[in-house]
């Protein structure tokens, strides 16, 4: 299993409280197949709705709110660690939960999606997201109201609509458990830019404002730091999209996502569309100030590829990274891995 390189507090699900009936320690799971069998997604036709709610007490907005009250007919969990999350999901699955409410940010969603396939082995729950985090990129893509409440999400599970999104999966060779699932992957300068975003959070900048300030800071570091600064030199990566030749060279940035709409409506991958999309920028990026408007607006300009800015659609990519990578805001160690589009999931919308 991929381990985080950050302190425990940085994880999406590390909270101050844990309020649910404890169960026995999660059992050891046999090594999973590299690509698990597709699961059916629960729908209203599957019978009575049974709802499980995961609260992240350390999510940005939840820190400012009173502890959530229980909702009749729903099971609640407030895990304070990955082990507690595993036990909560195991209990939900045993009790027949077929819809999940995730009250937290993108990191919380990543943690729940990554752990859930260890427990929901037949019918996978549909998911409602409460955007309580710092950037809430998935909520932006789904068009969710940023002030959506748990009670409104529970009502929408019974009466609302559905949008499908396929997560991005990260697998290591020889993984003995399920891989990571998220929606925004980045390496190279993206790791450094995420560090800048954490700084903007400390000064009260969140959501689109944090994204904008991080882009501005990354460009400034690249343009004004000189040709030999560490931003421009990039990091060694081996990138091998399925069915294409491998690239083994220093890269300034590698960005990947399965979202159809990014925060601030930026379009680094070009026109809005589903599927796994990549942006790769060669080390020592050229004419970055001239390229930036086309990169952010999604315009397909010939000079982009000519100057080392490459957009690509791929179902699967084999990667070897010398440095770390980011998945939905958290840092993980690099190495050899497979990046691919996962099984589509159903997300509840108003």
Automatic annotation (TrEMBL):
Q: Look up the EC number in the record and give it.
A: 2.7.1.-
Keywords, in A-Z order: Kinase, Transferase
The source's domain of life comes to Bacteria
A Pfam family matched in the record: DAGK_cat
Annotated Gene3D superfamilies: Probable inorganic polyphosphate/atp-NAD kinase, domain 1
> Has UniProt tagged this entry with the keyword Manganese?
no
**GO molecular function of the protein, one example?**
kinase activity
Q: Start and end of every DAGKc domain?
A: 87-177
Q: What is this protein called?
A: Diacylglycerol/lipid kinase family protein
Its source organism is Sphingomonas hylomeconis
